[in-house]
């Protein structure tokens, strides 16, 4: 009988640290890992961040793996097993995905894998800024075997305790690990051997978030771009991508009003903007960005 490949699902709200966790796993876990990514937004930014790390990748394209891509998902899983025979498969879902349907599908229909565990990354800073837990986040918390309470550097001890109590009220069994930049021993995430069975979900998933993207061959003036980033907070919840300044190329990440720039080898400028009614502000945001071109 063929041994089933263990599959781990990484889920969690937009910008909570899922890609940061993947990068950490790839740097620190000495196994042959294959990654499947599902992104929200037209350009696969995360795929490009992970590429080059000597890892086998499959990009599921735009959309939400929870509701529209299950057939494509199964085909990608089978192809990756047949072509590279990985020790572990890791699936990163988009921040807007509700993982219960995916978990059900893996447990019920996928014959070549077994669900090893679900890791949900939670943004402690966002939980303080937006304390009411939305429907999608709640499902992500409930599905978890491991809850990574991430970004602990941005909140106080008492805030952390309150968040932990809230997580516990939604999920009594998951282990809760506090992390900064998802620095966790990968052995704690793999080999879980999940036995909890997911009942078939019956949700109709309505996307709350919209996104748009832009690309540009231009070089941007850094100070102007930083002012542009400071101004994004009211319109955008999440933005990410690559931007070219005179001094080099950078990875730009914006989550809930905070942003950073990290030197990154990726030519050109391509950015994705995600927010609740972000399409209404598209023209204005792109005009402000264009004014920073050199
Ligand atoms: N201060 C702080 N920032 C963090 C921490 N972990 C991640 N970040 C930052 O949070 C931002 C988003 O991280 P990502 O790993 O891209 O988040 P994600 O969950 O993959 O985002 P989506 O795929 O868009 O949902 C980046 O700027 C990270 O550097 C942390 O523990 N502390």
From TrEMBL:
Species of provenance: Funiculus sociatus GB2-A5
Domain named CobW C-terminal: residues: 209-293
Pfam families, per database record: cobW, CobW_C
Protein keywords: Chaperone, Hydrolase, Nucleotide-binding
Signal peptide start and end residues: none
Reaction it catalyzes: GTP + H2O = GDP + phosphate + H(+)
Keyword Transferase: no
Protein name (record): GTP-binding protein
Keyword Chaperone annotated: yes
InterPro entries in alphabetical order: CobW-likC_sf, CobW-like_C, CobW/HypB/UreG_nucleotide-bd, P-loop_NTPase, Zinc-reg_GTPase_activator
Family of this protein: Belongs to the SIMIBI class G3E GTPase family. ZNG1 subfamily.
């Amino acid at each position: 009988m063929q041994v089933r490949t263990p599959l781990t699902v990484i889920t969690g709200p937009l910008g909570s640290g899922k890609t940061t966790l993947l990068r950490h796993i790839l740097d620190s876990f000495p196994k042959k890992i294959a990654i499947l990514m599902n992104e929200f937004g037209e350009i696969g930014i995360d795929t490009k961040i992970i590429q080059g790390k000597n890892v086998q990748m499959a990009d599921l394209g735009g959309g939400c793996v929870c509701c529209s891509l299950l057939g494509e998902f199964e085909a990608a899983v089978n192809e990756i097993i047949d072509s590279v025979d990985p020790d572990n498969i890791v699936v990163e879902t988009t921040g807007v995905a509700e993982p219960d349907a995916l978990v059900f599908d893996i447990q019920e229909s996928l014959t070549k894998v077994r669900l090893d565990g679900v890791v949900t990354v939670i943004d402690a800073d966002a939980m303080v800024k937006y304390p009411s837990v939305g429907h999608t986040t709640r499902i992500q918390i409930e599905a978890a075997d491991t809850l990574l309470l991430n970004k602990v550097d941005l909140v106080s001890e008492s805030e952390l305790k309150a968040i932990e109590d809230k997580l516990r009220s939604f999920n009594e069994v998951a282990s809760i690990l506090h992390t900064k930049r998802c620095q966790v021993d990968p052995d704690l995430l793999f080999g879980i051997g999940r036995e909890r069975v997911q009942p078939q979900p019956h949700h109709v998933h309505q996307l709350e978030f919209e996104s748009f993207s832009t690309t540009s061959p231009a070089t941007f003036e850094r100070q102007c771009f930083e002012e542009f980033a400071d101004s994004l907070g009211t319109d955008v919840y999440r933005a990410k991508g690559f931007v070219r300044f005179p001094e080099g190329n950078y990875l730009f990440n914006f989550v809930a009003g905070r942003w950073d720039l990290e030197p990154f080898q990726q030519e050109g400028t391509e950015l994705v903007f995600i927010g609740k009614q972000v399409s209404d502000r598209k023209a204005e945001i792109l005009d402000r960005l264009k004014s920073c071109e050199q």
